[in-house]
Amino acid sequence: MELGVPGVALHAATTATDLSLVAVVALASIGGALLLGLALAAFLRRQSRPYLLVALALAALVARSVVAALAMTGTVDTNVHHLLEHGFDVALVALVIGAVYYARTISQEAV
Hints:
There is one protein chain. The protein is an all-alpha fold. 77% of the residues lie in helices and 0% in strands. It has 3 helices and no strands. The protein has helices at residues 19-46, 49-72, 78-110. Helix 1 runs antiparallel to helix 2 (49-72). The longest helix has 33 residues, at 78-110.
Protein backbone atom coordinates (compact mmCIF):
# COMPACT_ATOMS: atom_id res chain seq x y z
CA MET A 1 0.00 0.00 0.00
CA GLU A 2 1.44 3.33 -1.05
CA LEU A 3 0.61 6.48 0.87
CA GLY A 4 0.97 9.84 -0.85
CA VAL A 5 3.85 10.85 -3.08
CA PRO A 6 7.10 8.90 -2.53
CA GLY A 7 9.65 11.06 -0.74
CA VAL A 8 7.04 13.58 0.42
CA ALA A 9 5.61 13.47 3.93
CA LEU A 10 1.91 12.59 3.91
CA HIS A 11 0.95 15.72 5.81
CA ALA A 12 2.85 17.89 3.30
CA ALA A 13 0.30 17.16 0.57
CA THR A 14 -1.57 20.32 -0.39
CA THR A 15 -4.46 18.82 -2.32
CA ALA A 16 -7.18 16.34 -1.50
CA THR A 17 -6.09 13.82 -4.15
CA ASP A 18 -4.97 11.15 -1.68
CA LEU A 19 -8.04 9.35 -0.38
CA SER A 20 -6.20 7.89 2.61
CA LEU A 21 -5.30 11.41 3.78
CA VAL A 22 -8.87 12.59 3.26
CA ALA A 23 -10.14 9.60 5.26
CA VAL A 24 -7.69 10.20 8.12
CA VAL A 25 -8.52 13.91 8.33
CA ALA A 26 -12.26 13.14 8.18
CA LEU A 27 -11.99 10.55 10.97
CA ALA A 28 -9.86 12.90 13.07
CA SER A 29 -12.39 15.69 12.58
CA ILE A 30 -15.36 13.52 13.52
CA GLY A 31 -13.60 11.99 16.53
CA GLY A 32 -12.34 15.36 17.71
CA ALA A 33 -15.78 16.93 17.34
CA LEU A 34 -17.37 14.10 19.35
CA LEU A 35 -14.79 14.48 22.11
CA LEU A 36 -15.25 18.24 22.11
CA GLY A 37 -19.01 17.80 22.49
CA LEU A 38 -18.50 15.47 25.45
CA ALA A 39 -15.98 17.86 27.01
CA LEU A 40 -18.35 20.80 26.63
CA ALA A 41 -21.16 18.78 28.21
CA ALA A 42 -18.85 17.85 31.11
CA PHE A 43 -17.81 21.48 31.52
CA LEU A 44 -21.42 22.68 31.57
CA ARG A 45 -22.21 20.08 34.23
CA ARG A 46 -19.12 20.65 36.42
CA GLN A 47 -18.53 24.37 35.81
CA SER A 48 -14.86 24.15 36.80
CA ARG A 49 -11.69 25.57 35.31
CA PRO A 50 -9.94 22.22 34.63
CA TYR A 51 -12.94 21.03 32.59
CA LEU A 52 -12.89 24.31 30.66
CA LEU A 53 -9.17 23.91 29.92
CA VAL A 54 -9.67 20.34 28.68
CA ALA A 55 -12.57 21.50 26.46
CA LEU A 56 -10.37 24.25 25.03
CA ALA A 57 -7.58 21.71 24.39
CA LEU A 58 -10.02 19.52 22.47
CA ALA A 59 -11.19 22.59 20.55
CA ALA A 60 -7.55 23.11 19.52
CA LEU A 61 -7.50 19.48 18.33
CA VAL A 62 -10.59 20.09 16.19
CA ALA A 63 -9.10 23.35 14.87
CA ARG A 64 -6.01 21.39 13.85
CA SER A 65 -8.18 19.08 11.73
CA VAL A 66 -9.97 22.08 10.20
CA VAL A 67 -6.61 23.59 9.22
CA ALA A 68 -5.59 20.28 7.62
CA ALA A 69 -8.84 20.18 5.63
CA LEU A 70 -8.38 23.79 4.52
CA ALA A 71 -4.82 23.00 3.41
CA MET A 72 -6.06 20.02 1.38
CA THR A 73 -8.55 22.22 -0.44
CA GLY A 74 -5.85 24.81 -1.14
CA THR A 75 -7.49 27.47 1.02
CA VAL A 76 -4.52 27.63 3.41
CA ASP A 77 -0.93 27.79 2.17
CA THR A 78 1.37 24.90 3.14
CA ASN A 79 3.68 27.09 5.24
CA VAL A 80 0.75 28.70 7.06
CA HIS A 81 -0.76 25.24 7.51
CA HIS A 82 2.31 23.96 9.33
CA LEU A 83 2.58 27.09 11.47
CA LEU A 84 -1.09 26.88 12.47
CA GLU A 85 -1.05 23.12 13.13
CA HIS A 86 2.02 23.26 15.30
CA GLY A 87 0.68 26.38 17.01
CA PHE A 88 -2.46 24.41 17.90
CA ASP A 89 -0.20 21.58 19.16
CA VAL A 90 1.51 24.01 21.53
CA ALA A 91 -1.84 25.40 22.71
CA LEU A 92 -3.21 21.88 23.24
CA VAL A 93 -0.24 20.83 25.36
CA ALA A 94 -0.29 24.04 27.40
CA LEU A 95 -4.03 23.72 28.08
CA VAL A 96 -3.74 20.07 29.20
CA ILE A 97 -0.79 20.89 31.47
CA GLY A 98 -2.75 23.83 32.86
CA ALA A 99 -5.77 21.62 33.53
CA VAL A 100 -3.68 19.00 35.36
CA TYR A 101 -1.80 21.64 37.36
CA TYR A 102 -4.97 23.48 38.33
CA ALA A 103 -6.77 20.25 39.27
CA ARG A 104 -3.86 19.15 41.49
CA THR A 105 -3.72 22.60 43.12
CA ILE A 106 -7.40 22.42 44.02
CA SER A 107 -7.15 18.86 45.38
CA GLN A 108 -4.19 19.81 47.64
CA GLU A 109 -6.08 22.86 48.97
CA ALA A 110 -9.06 20.66 49.86
CA VAL A 111 -6.91 18.40 52.10
